[in-house]
Amino acid sequence: MRTDWTRNEAEAIYAQPLMDLLFQAQTVHRAHFDPNRVQMSRLLSVKTGGCPEDCSYCSQSARNGAQLSASKLMEVERVLAEARKAKAAGATRYCMGAAWRSPKERDMPAIEAMVRGVRELGMETCMTLGMLDEDQVLRLKGAGLDYYNHNIDTSESFYPEIITTRSFADRLDTLDRVREAGIKVCSGGILGMGEAVGDRIDMLLALATLPEHPESVPINMLIPVENTPLADAAPVDPIDFVRVVALGRILMPRSYLRLSAGRTGMSDEMQALCFFAGANSLFMGDTLLTAANPGEDRDQKLFDKLGLRPEAPGSEGAA
Ligand code: SAM
Ligand code: DTB
Ligand code: SF4
Fold first, then answer.
1. Closest ligand 1 atom to 128 CA
2. Is residue 101 a contact partner of residue 53, using CB atoms and an 8 Å limit?
3. How far is the CA of 198 from the centre of ligand 2 (A)?
4. How many CB atoms sit inside 10 A of residue 219's CB?
5. How many Å apart are CA 202 and CA 191, to the nearest integer?
6. Who has the most CB within 10 Å: 2, 17, 88, 156?
7. CA distance 48 to 71
8. What pLDDT does 316 receive?
9. Rounded to an integer, what distance in angstroms lies between the CA atom of residue 241 and that of residue 178?
């Protein structure tokens, strides 16, 4: 896997005629994955709202005007009950998110118990809890955490326009600690925050030139949240979105590319083009963390139309 992609190469790939770009992406995709299988993850917000960070897209920031009330950390048993339902509905990975800048010591035992409990159900585990220090990373690894999600969200140069309470370098530091501890990395970003095409390319390049590619790369389309600074951001052009997916597939051939937030705002045709461009993972169920997601009925219809099938448990990456 190449980790030395240059800006010029990435730009040239991105700027090809769309049919050439899609053909290249699908060719790379088929060399590494079954093109008709999609990995299914389910999300749960285990601690919602009241976050001290100022991410301008987020419904959960206490610094935004958003009116979401803050909750306490969920009880472990309730989390496991939700996880059982997700497993029954076909999820193979269970992703738990908390609206924290970083976890507090008092919350770690419950977080570790959630990881152990979900693993015992036979699903892969993923957590997204904000920044982690060395000790926290080791404890999560000890509990058996499979993946840690920590998005870089956009390019390094556009980052301060979106978030001021932490830096792009802080993000890379946590990603590095997660990788060093042997936890798989999930990191991606958001399109539609007012960034330029060059920022999108730079974001993918930042991921594709890490010492190892993230195993999982979520590509979110901004869900505009009322009262946040990005409530009125201009929507991304669907074809531009598809181009980003294709570039991600070509730069990171073995990574799972997840069509993440924003699918309620995508047509079947747009999602089909994203799958053709190499997206091969999604969030199932009718809620993400706080926002709406298509839900199983609509996704089942889409899968039927496209002849797609959920990836079987334990077959990750099998071509
Ligand atoms: N607090 C943790 C953190 O930020 O690292 C984890 C939870 S945070 C909600 C996870 C990711 O969801 C963000 O990095 C962002 O990429 C995505 N996200 C949040 N709000 C979104 C929105 N309104 N539209 C699209 N993606 C969003
Ligand atoms: C990611 O990249 N997208 C997910 C997951 N990682 C944690 C979160 C999407 C959140 C969408 C907005 C919401 O539900 O509040
Ligand atoms: Fe907090 Fe995460 Fe939302 Fe940023 S994205 S405000 S860190 S919950």
1. 6
2. yes
3. 23
4. 25
5. 12
6. 156
7. 5
8. 67
9. 28
Q: Which residues' Cβ are closer than 6 Å to ligand 3?
A: 51, 53, 55, 58, 60-61, 99, 130
Nearest CA to ligand 3 atom 4: 55
Say how many Å lie between the CA of residue 90 and the centre of ligand 1: 24
57 ligand 1 Cβ < 6 A:
yes
- Residue 129: partners with Cβ closer than 8 Å, 6 or more residues away: 97, 98, 100, 102, 103, 111
- pLDDT, tens digit, for every residue of 194-235? 999 999 999 999 999 999 999 999 999 999 999 999 999 999
List of the chain residues with pLDDT < 70: 66, 316-319
Query: Is any atom of ligand 1 closer than 6 Å to the C-beta of 246?
Result: no
Dist CA 63 CA 4 (whole Å): 38
Ligand 1 near 183 CB (within 6 A): no
Cβ of 154 less than 6 Å from ligand 1: no
SS3 52: coil
> pTM for the full model?
0.96
For residue 49, the CA-to-ligand 3 centroid distance in Å is 8
CA distances from 271 to 16, 69, 93, 238, 258 (A): 21, 32, 21, 9, 11
The residue nearest atom 18 of ligand 1, judged by CA position, is 58
265: left (phi over 0), alpha (psi -120 to 50) or beta: alpha
Residue with tokens 């309620």: 264
Alpha helical stretches, state H, the chain: 7-14, 18-32, 76-88, 108-120, 134-143, 159-162, 168-180, 197-208, 238-251, 268-276, 296-306
Question: Rounded CA gap, 299 and 203, in Å?
Answer: 28
Place of tokens 């920044």: 131
CA 147 to the chain's CA centroid: 11
